[in-house]
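User: Fold this; tokens only.

Assistant: Input:
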Amino acid sequence: MKNNNGDNVYNINDMRENTPTEPGMPPSFQADELIFDAMEEPDRRRRLQLIYQALAIHPECVDAYNMLARDAALDTVEELVYYRQGLIAGGKELGKDFFRENEGHFWGLVETRPYMRAKLGYAETLWLLDNKQDAVEEFRHMLKLCPDDNLGIRYLLLPRLIELDMDDQAQELYQSFDDGTACWAYSRILLDFRKSGSAPAEHIDEALASNAYVPPYIAGNKRLPKEIPDEYQLGSPEEAIIYISESGAAWKATPGAREWLRKELTARGLTPTGRQRKSSKKKGK
């Protein structure tokens, strides 16, 4: 039997009977080894086979569901189902006592990372499916599990709170982190504008100093590339692209914000590209 992609639909029971296991090695370890192999496997069919073998050995293998969400899902709804299955499996694997005893230390504990990856995928997919309030609650819970925010959840949550007009909660989140990124600097002036129709000059100057590549995207003078970078350095073009990809909707959802920023740039002698305006005076001969 094949699915709509033409891929074989593996029967877990059949896989369980035909998947060799190594004596003495816990099933979870064997499943992890198969997942590591799957991550490095370029062939999609072979990769799926390894994933299903891992599940056959260890049904609570969370990263198997995480990979199925990316490799096997036919649509966003099916992605959500796989991530949800991963969360259920992770809940069983870790146990209620573990959650109670280790809340606040997730991600720092290696065994929690597959669960956190599933939760992140689940939250982002909820947002894509327009279940935005549920997505926000998932992001908030991740910060409760890992207050140090090793995964950078705050960069996803802050613009979404602004987009949903949850400014008080956005302000509270902003004040919870001492952060030198463009996301924090530009989110601050956006929150300022939403509150009073302007922002302190020093806040605007600090935002421009944090990353001069952001204004053209906000002003609409530059479009995002088709591929969003995976990493960045502070103040870089890549940081600007990543910031706008996550926060552009918050600016668009704020009436007058982009026009206001254009005026602020002009007042500083800057073009919407963030560059200094050239003087119109001609040099003497």
